[in-house]
Predict the structure.
Amino acid sequence: MAGQLAGQPILILREGTQRSRGKEAQSSNIMAAKAVAAAVRTTLGPKGMDKMLVDSLGDIVITNDGATILKEMDIEHPAAKMIVEVAKTQDDEVGDGTTTAAVLAGELLKKAEELLEQDVHPTIIASGYRLAAEKAKEILPSITKKVTSKDKDLLLKIAVTAITGKGAEAAKDTMSSLAVDAVLSVVEKSDGKNTVDIDDIKVEKKVGGSVDDSCMIQGMVIDKERVHPNMPKKVTGAKILLLNEAIEIKKTEVTAEVQITSPDQMQAFLDQEERMLKTMVDKVVASGANVVFCQKGIDDIAQHYLAKAGIFAARRVKKSDIEKLARATGASIITSFDEITEKDIGHAGAVEEKKIGDEEMAFVTECKNPKSVSILLRGGTEHVVDEAERAIHDALRVVGVVIEDEKLVAGGGSPEVELALRLREYAATLKGREQLAVEKFAESLEIIPRTLAENAGLDPIDKLVDMRSQHEKGNKNAGLNVYSGDVVDMWKDGVVEPLRVKTQAISSATEVATMILRIDDVIASSKPPAPPGGGPGGMPGGGMGGEEFD
């Protein structure tokens, strides 16, 4: 960027800065966004394939989850990073439909490119897209159905739809019933509205067995063992005490010295320490508790006294686990031994140490009305368990979202075809060039059913025509059964999704597409020269790649 002044060029930008403007900037941004969308496109739908991602350390991730793929890919281009953000937002908001959102954003830009070539101004395309997105949100409620948390069959179908196509698909019945049972356990009603906090469901992974061996515990699984071998392995009718204080001798806050001049004093000092520990344990015993989960340490002598009293104790339990235990058992978290009362004790049918794989774990089971539950996932290898975890995460989130919103749409590409049809009708009512953008928006939506057909090895054009004609006849729920290749009623096939999956995907994809469209100038500053001897903290020279766009 230089200006002329009496024959002298004036440089405003630092040397090495790259700048692209106008058509060049737009097409490079659109190309990058399309490339990212194309990368995840093949994973869409039940017949989608998986990706294997190997990072710089050689760690492997094998997944079908759009958000995970995009997060693990080391993306440098700033416009491409924005597509990753779409998938991330979708994951945070709904948990499923991440690939849909990314593919839709890529397609919207691809169609916009066709309009740009016809000299339609980017601002007009952006406003047309926004009109179409608003209209789509108006149309969607007309094709939704209501569902309540009592309709367990429908909830199971939603969970199955979310899991289908993931690596854990073989065990989709087991996984979906786990997800539905877990979510129904933690639903809370306030002001007549349901809320589901997925953090109340603890997912614990253990390699070994198969995915079918996964189970749900009406209570908690803690990845800890009892601290002393003389403690009981199983406690029935457990009375649980949750401690946020160490059962150890406190160190003084100020620097204090104790001068000992004779062995007798030494012995007296040690005896006193032991008595103090015994007093602590006595307070625990007096509370009537027979199980103790401690967030901090438990002294060896205290362990001995606890074991003698027949108390099951675990130490250094994670803070998040202690909080979940409180929700599951109704116990209060205690920070001082003098404060323990009968009310602070939690209850569970049994606390038992079991060996899972090659590790001991504590199972807190048979809680009366647990507000926090656990799912124990099993699988043949680490990668299988990881992918099972991603599948169950999606299923838990969509079931949670449906219980909160109580609204469903059909799956299998059917809402997209219906929206495309209605948006074309809407486009015809518009005057001005926005009409073209709305039509392109309608075409873009059809990428979803097309991709579903392509990934299943079917002819995308034939299937799309077939679906369109069904929708024109008024079959609003006609979608693609990828197994048989037929266009059928998706409600009858039980392929259903939460309404929020669609609304969120459409709004975030539209927002990003319009944002990228409006950029006509990319000014990228050059990377700073590498300091000698690698970057800070032994990082390779040049700092972190692509950091200057964040």
Observations:
- The mean pLDDT is 82.
- The CA atoms of residues 179 and 396 lie 5 Å apart.
